[in-house]
Design goal:
Blueprint lengths: L8 E5 L4 H12 L3 E6 L2 H15 L2 E5 L5 H15 L4 E4 L14 H26 L5 E6 L13 H21 L4 E8 L5 H4 L3 H9 L9 H12 L10 E4 L9
């Protein structure tokens, strides 16, 4: 158990399912006050009910990362309830598929507004409160797709995930003097509800492409994020942690 996160207030955007839910659960198990943010409050509350049974202090909030004012209100509400915001896990994201030749402006804008601009909105809304913390932590959920690899049908997704890392590096520079670190976790293929929807054949194909011959768990991302949020990780900023079971290592 990382004692330094105990009692800290952690916001997880897109925290009601998939990787976000895994991140929220991991922080809650380690004694943090965890705020699950999702567009649908009922979805957020359902997640909180499940996590709170075993994991302690978990709180549901409705928020839309594509709407700056919505995230401002989320941060204000969280600070009002807990008196601090110590960690932001900017995790909300979508990954619809669209071939490049058929992709519309609307397809592109939806992904970029959620994944890239959504990160900007969440971070900007939390900065005033992170400055007041003993130390602030921002952890962005990016991906190996875009920054390191590509995958057909996901050019807009890949662009958004690469954009997050450009944002991260400059944000880390701007916030370093405020004792706020900004880092990113880059998941490979993690078994989530969204991935399961792509079908068993896809899951088997992806598992075979990983040297460890298995898909990752949401908890694998949760513990990477947890470490980056600790006091002990205070000299790490502007960096990326790839969590992919060695997927990007083979030459062919």
């Amino acid at each position: 158990m990382y004692q330094s996160v105990k009692g800290k207030t952690v916001i997880v955007t897109g925290g009601s399912k998939g990787i976000g839910k895994g991140i929220a659960s991991t922080f809650a198990k380690n004694g943090a006050n965890v705020v699950v943010v999702a567009r649908n409050l009922d979805t957020s509350k359902a997640c909180v009910s499940e996590l709170a049974a075993d994991n302690g202090n978990v709180y549901a909030v409705s928020g839309d990362v594509t709407d700056r004012e919505s995230m401002v209100e989320v941060a204000k509400e969280v600070f009002g309830k807990f008196g601090s915001i110590d960690v932001l896990c900017s995790n909300a994201g979508i990954f619809p598929s669209a071939n490049l030749e058929e992709m519309t402006n609307e397809d592109w804008d939806l992904v970029m507004n959620t994944n890239a601009k959504g990160t900007f909105h969440a971070v900007q809304a939390c900065i005033p409160y992170l400055k007041k913390a003993e130390y602030g932590r921002i952890i962005i959920t990016s991906s190996i797709t875009g920054p390191v690899t590509g995958y057909p049908g996901w050019s807009h997704y890949a662009a958004s995930k690469a954009a997050q890392l450009g944002f991260m590096r400059t944000a880390a520079l701007e916030l370093a003097s405020e004792n706020i670190t900004v880092n990113a976790v880059l998941p490979g293929n993690i078994l989530t509800e969204g991935l399961e929807e792509l079908g068993e054949e896809y899951l088997q194909e992806m598992a075979e492409s990983i040297p460890m011959k298995k898909l990752g768990r949401v908890e694998d991302i949760g513990y990477a994020a947890l470490f980056l949020a600790t006091k002990e990780a205070g000299f790490i900023t502007g960096q990326t942690v790839i969590v992919d079971g060695g997927q990007i290592l083979p030459e062919n």
